[in-house]
Amino acid sequence: MMVHGLKREGAFNMDIDIIELSERKARFVLSGVSKAFANGLRRDILAGVPVLAIDDVNIYDNTSVLYDEQLALRLGLIPLKADTSTYNMPEDCSCGGEGCASCQVSLTLSAEGPRLVTSVELISTDPDVSPADDTIPIVELKDTHKVVLEAIARLGTGSKHAKWQAGIASGYKKMPVITIGECDLCEKCVEACPRNILKVKSNNLNIVNVIDCSMCNLCVEACEMDSIKVAESPDSFVMAFETTGAMTAAHIAVEAVNNIKKKAGQLGEILDTL
Ligand SMILES: [Zn+2]
Questions:
Q1: Which end of the chain is more exposed for a tag (fewer CB within 10 A), N or C?
Q2: What is the DSSP letter of 232?
Q3: Residue 106 Cα to ligand 1 middle (Å)
């Protein structure tokens, strides 16, 4: 997939090669970008994509073993699946952040013991908003224990609080580049590689799954002919991240790129005024 990059003068072409893409996990090679852009994308995946999370809880009854504050904390950390484009950030909403149907959604919970209360029991006023997983434990109720509450969810980003983090375990490494010179097929490098990157096939030393290379240089040390070179690509990065389930991995990546684009546009406007 070719995407036009973000440079004020003369756009460069960014190339994305997807290695793995599922609902909650993505791994891809990003080429034709600077390290700063790759790091910006990593940061935005973690902290710049808005998602819904419970931000306020009105507790009407709580005779469980958890304090009200502990209960509210546990509710805040439940990832909520939603179409975030239909909600405004509270600070950008026409209500001025006071709270309205455009910037918040209410979820209710009413449960009596004895049983384990899980996220599936949170009933949302918006049918498009629901916990990302149904089996997240909230509280274990014993005989006569009761919990009745209303939770208010709002949009936010991970830069404000970890409960609004859509992407998790986001990271990147420079793309390894292995070059092989003259080879006598002694296979010492093949034995030395802990990740099975090198293989001899059809009288040739081949490189398989170069992205798995950790650049440990054991193959370089093992080669008596000094024929193997392991280097890093200056403008290609192997990126990987997972999601909490609040959004799909593809959606988060697109939102993060759009965020960077928006910020670059704003910076451009400021520079133009100078
Ligand atoms: Zn509002």
A1: C
A2: E
A3: 13
Concatenated DSSP letters of 121-143: GPEESSTT-EES-S--EEEEE-T
CA 182 to centroid of ligand 1, rounded, Å: 67
What's the whole-model pTM score? 0.83
Rounded CA separation 235/102 (Å): 41
Distance from the alpha carbon of residue 42 to the mean position of ligand 1, in angstroms: 30
CA distance 257 to 3: 10
Ligand 1 centre distance from Cα of residue 160 (Å): 19
Question: What pLDDT sits at residue 3?
Answer: 46
Residue 11 is predicted with a pLDDT of 52
The pLDDT tens digits for 115-164 are 999 999 999 999 999 999 999 999 999 999 999 999 999 999 999 999 99
CA gap 25, 44 in Å, rounded: 16
Q: Domains in the chain and their CATH numbers? A: 2-48+167-273 (3.30.1360.10), 51-164 (2.170.120.12)
Helix, strand, or coil (residue 61): strand
The string over 169-195, giving b where at least 16 C-beta atoms fall within 10 Å of a residue's C-beta and e elsewhere, is ebebebbbbbebeebeeeebbbebbee
Distance CA 28, CA 239 (A): 5
- For 79, how many CA atoms within 13 A lie in the half-sphere containing its CB? 19
Instruction: Give the C-alpha separation, 220 to 227, whole Å.
Output: 8
* Residues comprising the chain, all counted: 274
